[in-house]
């Protein structure tokens, strides 16, 4: 099997595939004014998703994460999972979701082949959750996490965007929540985007604050598997849950990059930040174009930069994280 390798000898086993940029939440750090349609958009079809999956699988991809926007807003979401699951080389299919449809649909997603779930929950206080997301859906999201366990998932990952003076003081409450639950709670540093500079300046906080507290309280860091995301993961003998830290501003964050992105409009993005993307859609029209598609993906990878340059305030052309799937 061929393997995707860039000019810095990084190997890529993991694809983040956005299937829509539509979202029904209005998170303060991403879409504070809600989703605004920008002309008529035609997102990747089921056949196009199948062709993307087959090409990346042939190039060594083992894991695909479905992202958005809110990916579960697609009516054919279960069919998308089943389509990807039909490709034997893909060992893991994950989703990042705001969780509002979990309780209703998670069992059928699991039956279709979904192997892992990440749910965004930035606060365990229902009022603060409402203030951050613009949706009074805390109970529904919590019920969805319970439903995921009932459907047979052994672990659920919960994403928390770390925000100074918003949720950074809530670590004890979060830790208490995962003490007897197999939840990997992942604190993600707030990242600067084109539309979000003011929010970034007000709320950004380094994950180092959390990491130091974890070390002080006896948490231990565990190694990453090759198709894992960028989280530093910590365990503690007294806790069933785990803590993950995603710290894109830390030195050498990009050294271990193992993932590529395809947007809902069919562009290959080599990084979450900094470039316009490489069009793939003209090669997704027919099954006979697979070789050309693989060559374009491989050729594009030669242009992947060594780092994201966020430290220099270079946010690239990414206006907000819903555009290419966070």
Automatic annotation (TrEMBL):
The keyword Transcription regulation belongs to this UniProt entry's keyword annotation: no
Catalyzed reactions per annotation: GTP + AH2 + S-adenosyl-L-methionine = (8S)-3',8-cyclo-7,8-dihydroguanosine 5'-triphosphate + 5'-deoxyadenosine + L-methionine + A + H(+)
SMART domains: Elp3 (SM00729)
Every Radical SAM core domain range: 7-231
Binding residues annotated for GTP, in chain numbering: 16, 65, 96, 157, 259-261
Residues involved in [4Fe-4S] cluster 2 binding: 254, 257, 271
InterPro entries hit by this protein: Aldolase_TIM, Elp3/MiaA/NifB-like_rSAM, MoaA, MoaA-like, MoaA_NifB_PqqE_Fe-S-bd_CS, MoaA_twitch, MoCo_biosynth_MoaA/MoaC, rSAM
Manner of cofactor binding, per the entry note: Binds 2 [4Fe-4S] clusters. Binds 1 [4Fe-4S] cluster coordinated with 3 cysteines and an exchangeable S-adenosyl-L-methionine and 1 [4Fe-4S] cluster coordinated with 3 cysteines and the GTP-derived substrate.
GO MF annotation list: 4 iron, 4 sulfur cluster binding; cyclic pyranopterin monophosphate synthase activity; GTP 3',8'-cyclase activity; GTP binding; metal ion binding; S-adenosyl-L-methionine binding
Entry-linked SUPFAM superfamilies: Radical SAM enzymes
Cofactor: [4Fe-4S] cluster
Gene3D superfamilies: Aldolase class I (3.20.20.70)
Pathway annotation: Cofactor biosynthesis; molybdopterin biosynthesis
Binding positions ([4Fe-4S] cluster 1): 23, 27, 30
An individual GO BP term: Mo-molybdopterin cofactor biosynthetic process
Record's keyword terms, sorted: 4Fe-4S, GTP-binding, Iron, Iron-sulfur, Lyase, Metal-binding, Molybdenum cofactor biosynthesis, Nucleotide-binding, S-adenosyl-L-methionine
Enzyme Commission number(s) from the entry: 4.1.99.22
Coiled coil start-end: none
Binding site for S-adenosyl-L-methionine: 29, 69, 120, 191
PANTHER family assigned to the protein according to its UniProt record, in alphabetical order: GTP 3',8-CYCLASE, MOLYBDOPTERIN COFACTOR SYNTHESIS PROTEIN A
Summary of subunit composition and partner proteins: Monomer and homodimer.
HAMAP family: MoaA_B
Entry similarity comment: Belongs to the radical SAM superfamily. MoaA family.
Role according to the record: Catalyzes the cyclization of GTP to (8S)-3',8-cyclo-7,8-dihydroguanosine 5'-triphosphate.
Name of the protein in its database record: GTP 3',8-cyclase
Organism the protein comes from: Proteus myxofaciens ATCC 19692
């Amino acid at each position: 099997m061929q393997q995707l390798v860039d000019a810095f000898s990084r190997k890529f086993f993991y694809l983040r595939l956005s299937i829509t940029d539509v979202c029904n939440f209005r998170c303060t750090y991403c879409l504070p004014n809600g989703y605004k349609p920008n002309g008529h958009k035609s997102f990747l079809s089921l056949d196009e998703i199948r062709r993307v999956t087959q090409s990346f699988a042939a190039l060594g991809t083992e894991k695909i994460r479905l992202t958005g926007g809110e990916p579960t807003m697609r009516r054919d979401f279960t069919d998308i999972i089943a389509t990807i699951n039909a490709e034997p080389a893909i060992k893991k299919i994950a989703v990042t979701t705001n969780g509002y449809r979990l309780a209703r649909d998670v069992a059928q997603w699991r039956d279709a082949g979904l192997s892992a779930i990440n749910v965004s929950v930035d606060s365990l206080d229902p009022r603060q959750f409402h203030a951050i997301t613009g949706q009074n859906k805390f109970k529904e999201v919590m019920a969805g996490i319970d439903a995921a366990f009932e459907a047979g998932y052994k672990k659920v990952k919960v994403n928390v965007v770390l925000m100074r003076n918003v949720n950074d003081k809530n670590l004890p409450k979060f830790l208490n929540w995962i003490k007897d639950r197999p939840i990997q709670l992942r604190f993600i540093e707030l990242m600067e985007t084109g539309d979000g500079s003011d929010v970034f300046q007000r709320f950004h906080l380094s994950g180092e604050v959390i990491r130091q507290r974890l070390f002080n309280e006896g948490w231990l860091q565990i190694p990453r598997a090759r198709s894992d995301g960028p989280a530093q993961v910590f365990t503690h003998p007294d806790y069933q849950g785990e803590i993950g830290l995603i710290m894109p501003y830390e030195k050498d964050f990009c050294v271990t990059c193992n993932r590529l992105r395809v947007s809902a409009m069919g562009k290959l993005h080599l990084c979450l930040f900094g470039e316009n993307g490489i069009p793939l859609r003209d090669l997704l029209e027919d099954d006979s174009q697979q070789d050309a598609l693989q060559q374009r993906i491989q050729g594009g990878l030669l242009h992947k930069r060594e780092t994201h340059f966020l430290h220099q305030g270079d946010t690239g052309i990414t206006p907000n994280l819903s555009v290419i799937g966070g």
